[in-house]
Amino acid sequence: MSESIAIGAESTSADVVLHCGKHFLDLSRPRVMGILNVTPDSFSDGGRHNRLDDARRHAERLLREGAAIIDVGGESTRPGADAVSLDAERERVLPVVETLVEEFDALVSVDTSSPELMSEAAAAGAGLINDVRSLSRPGALEAAAGIDLPVCLMHMLGEPQTMQQAPHYDRPIEDAVADFLRQRIAVYEAAGIARERLLIDPGFGFAKTLAHNLRLLHRMESLDALGLPLLVGMSRKSMIGRTLGRAVDERLPGGLALTVMAVERGARIVRVHDVAPTLDAIDMAWAVLQERSDHE
Ligand code: 8Y4
Fold it and tell me: Count of domains in the chain?
């Protein structure tokens, strides 16, 4: 019988356990983050109670299908979407965070750029901060530093409203993204946010052309060099729509292919709409990848 000897982990970000408030998130294998939009363009617009009811029902399904995290967002970051006031965002997001924490004991991630909402969501029991603007709003760094939760640091240039107006990089996209993340990590650390609290995300679809997005996924292993757990969000995005010529509701198979490629390149959290099929794709890919780490 041949012996397999476990040698040190190949990836520096492997075997991390993130401390997310009262939850521990074991990233020794890839996990699924389920998307819960509470924007007016999602679900019913039949007032507060219906909205909360719809959010609760959808979250229950995401959790039942195996999501480890629920990402709750109240601002649409689609190019061209209207800016949302703090009051409107707060009123959409906070009741949902409270409900998911109280009723389901869920690990909730709050998708916001607002420092006030970060603090309030943390007080309501959220376990992770997901800011696509990487704490660039005034007061956001300080707010996040004052909250003892992990923070996802995502690459984007400019604002969601305008970021897709001819994005251009003078260097290979993966180098530009890695440098941006490196610089931001230094800023975060200087502000008192420990490296151990950080996740990194290449920001697929944010200030990137189709060619940028495809290349960035292909070269994503170069971001692993930063030694932090990698989160990716590609679910239903236009990189699938443009490549395959598919409408938003026809992008799942394309998304599953991207998920498998991301997991193979080190992704430890995949942010998606379709949890059950994504988890199957991840579990299948992961089973094959065990052969790599066991026998190298
Ligand atoms: C169809 C459906 C077309 C959704 C586009 C979209 C990311 C993220 C978003 C991401 C992290 C989106 C909040 C954009 N994307 N957070 N948030 N990473 N960390 N667009 O890639 O889903 S919103």
Answer: 1
The residue whose CA has the least distance to atom 16 of ligand 1 is 132
Per the CB < 8 A criterion, the answer to whether 223 and 204 are in contact is: no
Let me know: does 271 contact 230? Beta carbons within 8 Å: no
Q: What is the DSSP secondary structure assignment for residue 41, as one 8-state letter?
A: T
Distance CA 163, CA 22 (A): 36
CB 6 within 8 A of CB 15: no
pLDDT tens-digit map of 135-148: 999 999 999 999 99
For ligand 1, is residue 231 a contact (CB within 6 Å)?
yes
Residue of the CA atom closest to atom 13 of ligand 1:
111
Whether residue 8 lies inside any domain: the answer is: no
pTM above 0.85, yes or no: yes
Q: What is the token pair recorded at 221?
A: 């292993």
Per DSSP, 270 falls in state E
Domain that holds residue 42: 13-294
Give 15-58 pLDDT, tens digit per residue.
799 999 999 999 999 999 999 999 876 655 567 778 899 999 99
The residue with tokens 């931001």 is 184
Q: Is 236 in the pocket of ligand 1 (CB under 6 A)?
A: yes
- Say if 23 falls within a structural domain: yes
CB 73 near ligand 1, within 6 Å: yes
- Amino acid, single-letter form, for residue 209: T
Residue 5 lies in a domain: no
In angstroms, what is the span from residue 1 Cα to ligand 1's centroid? 48
Tell me which residues are annotated as active site. 237, 271
For residues 94 and 72, the answer to whether their CB atoms sit within 8 Å is no
Q: Find the CATH number of the domain harbouring 286.
A: 3.20.20.20
51 in contact with ligand 1, CB cutoff 6 A = no
On whether residue 18 sits in a domain, the answer given is yes
In angstroms, what CA-CA distances link 116 with 51, 92, 189? 22, 14, 21
Query: How many Å lie between the centroid of ligand 1 and the Cα of residue 294?
Result: 34
DSSP helix/strand/coil, 5? coil
